[in-house]
Amino acid sequence: MNRGSHMVRAFDEDLRFLSSKIATMGGHAERMVSDAVRALVNSDAGLAESVIAADAVLDDAERDIDDKAVLIIARRQPMAQDLREIIGAIRISADLERVGDLGKNIAKRASAVADKSQPVRLYRGLEALADLALAQLKEVLDAYASRSVDRLVYVRDRDEQIDVMYTSMFRELLTYMMEDPRNITACTHLLFCAKNIERIGDHATNIAETIFYISTGKQMPLERPKDDEANAVIVDQPE
Amino acid sequence: MNDNAGNRQPSRWTQKLSEARQTLVAVFLVLAVMVVLEPRLLAAAIAGFLLVAGVAALARSSRWPTGKNQGLQGTSADTKELLPARLLADALDDPMVIFDREMDIVFANKAAILAFGELTPGMALPLKFRAPEMVELVARVIRDGRASLQEYHERVPIERWYQVSAAAVDRAGGLFLLAFSDRGELRRIEKMRSDFIANASHELRTPLASISGFIETLGGPARNDPAAQKKFLVIMKAQTDRMARLIDDLLSLSRLEMKPYSRPDKLVDIRDIVSGVVRSLENLATEQGISVEEHYPDGRLEVPGDRDELIQVFENLLSNAYKYAQSGKRVVVSIERRKSDGADAIAVSIQDFGQGIPREHIPRITERFYRVDVETSRVQKGTGLGLSIVKHILTRHRGKLLVESEVGKGSTFTVVLPERGDLT
């Protein structure tokens, strides 16, 4: 960020306010998602409750960012990079707010799944999926901090991994449901959880595109660099 | 500073240090308290002190030119004198970050950059350390002058735990220090124990049940049947072998998980390792009736890596290819240079022409105990942990495993290892 470069110091502070709010939102969203999945896997109702409560922070922060952004635009009539910075903050906060909602939704399902124990393997798959999505979220938020765009183009590759993984989870859950109809309730909840996590990955990709736009003024190129095989599954995440 | 001292021509360094003495005394006291409370932080405290001494001296001379002769002399000399403090901070294993009242990063040592990635001066700290408790910690230290956090946990990309101490090092100049000390080992032991119990109890139960069943039969219905006894003993032997293998693999996986978040820095010759593994598994290849083709390029093929661990990676992949794709009769091992995520890398591919892996299984095959085909795995004496181990080792090497497969045509497992040691 080119902080301290404006004639009006207050303007710098306004922009700073936005980016620090985004950071807060990012931190909370990451925490909510990882706690929600943990609550689900360990059937931890208390943790699930706290995740549900934490969503209010994100809602408030999004409103703050919207209000502030409108004020800044009206008062300072920013142009170019500054304007993109502000519009970007609005977009990113909307994405993060959605991520929070999805996390909350996962936490709500934790209690529904808790009373019946499911095969460990299902949870393991869900955790692996969540780790992929969290890694992606972390990568884009780190990119927001450093404003380095060169790694952003690879975020889409990860998103593909998440999609493939989700498809695999989907099939597995279907198999369990067909094996025993008593599994249907719990497996449906788990299926929605997996879908939510997959959506979180999509929001992370959106944020990556927004950051690219803020920094360069251009849309992220659709064509990714062709140095990795297209049709391969890339396994580079720890369990 | 009095005139006498000036006449004796003290080095600029001592001069500045003495000007900053109040700060340094304060810092020293704070750090001394920290060390008393937490002896493990001693090294971090010393380095922090020296670093602050340097920064404080620089800050003094640049912010409050007192009219004394050093005020106008160039900063390049100052930077040089700062060097030892920075070098010391960089030599430290524990991550350390210094930031100002605006929560902007002033300095991060090498360990911090290695652990957390990009931390450039001027970057806002809360953007990088976003966890709510970290943000709160930073706010608290700016308000109260010191604070600590029992546990800072990062789940991705590699699970890590730190204890974080924060202290004001120079409240007048508004500098604060975050010192991280690795708590991972403790937590990993804990996690390893629970994982081990969960995995082992589940996976060992099956062979154990089968053995105890046979023991009952041997003591009962088959008591006087030598032929049946012989047959049962063979099965029981196979089951105990399987349990032993399982425990070996679980232990080796646990050992890998125990290793701290460190990246190997020694260079190893990949061609050497791969061809060595091919030689050592020649027997297995012949046994399964498989011919091996090797394609290696010329020139240096070195990556930073741990020799033994990489040997295990290629052993696991190659023996998988031999065992599960014997119908193909052919395995191709090749090494090539390529770009991965924009960086130079070396790719080792192991291609078989066996039955292939159905697409829906591919994303899951590195999960523990995930088996594509339980029956084949059992016949081939698999433990379900081989690829987990591979993945774990590659993660430590910042490498990747690419899996391409088509049912009926075969699979290609490609290991991509970055050539350069620095973190992206």
Could you explain how this protein is built, in words?
The complex is a heterodimer of chains A (239) and B (424). By secondary structure, chain A is mainly α. Chain A has one domain (9-216): Up-down Bundle (Methane Monooxygenase Hydroxylase, Chain G, domain 1), CATH 1.20.58.220. Chain A has helices at residues 9-41, 45-76, 80-114, 120-146, 155-179, 184-216, and one strand at residues 233-235. The two termini of chain A are 34 Å apart. The model of chain A is unreliable at 225-239 (pLDDT under 50). With 424 residues, chain B is of the alpha+beta class. Chain B contains 15 helices and twelve strands. In chain B, the strands form three sheets. A five-stranded antiparallel β-sheet of chain B has the order 2-1-5-4-3, sandwiched between helices. A five-stranded mixed β-sheet of chain B has the order 7-9-10-12-11. In chain B, strands 6-8 form a two-stranded antiparallel ribbon. In chain B, strand 9 (330-340) and strand 10 (343-352) form a beta hairpin. Chain B is globular, with a radius of gyration of 29 Å. The relative contact order of chain B is 0.08. The interface between A and B is large, with 52 and 50 residues.
Topology:
The complex is a heterodimer of chains A (239) and B (424).
Chain A: H1 9-41, H2 45-76, H3 80-114, H4 120-146, H5 155-179, H6 184-216, E1 233-235
Helix pairs in contact in A: 1-2, 1-3, 1-4, 2-3, 3-6, 4-5, 4-6, 5-6
Chain B: H1 3-7, H2 12-19, H3 21-37, H4 42-63, H5 75-91, E1 96-100, E2 105-108, H6 110-116, H7 125-128, H8 132-144, E3 146-154, E4 160-170, E5 175-182, H9 184-219, H10 226-258, E6 267-269, H11 270-280, H12 282-287, E7 291-295, E8 302-304, H13 307-324, E9 330-340, E10 343-352, H14 374-379, H15 386-396, E11 400-406, E12 410-418
Parallel strand pairs in B: 7-9
Antiparallel strand pairs in B: 1-2, 1-5, 3-4, 4-5, 6-8, 9-10, 10-12, 11-12
Helix pairs in contact in B: 2-4, 3-4, 4-5, 9-10, 10-15, 11-13, 13-15
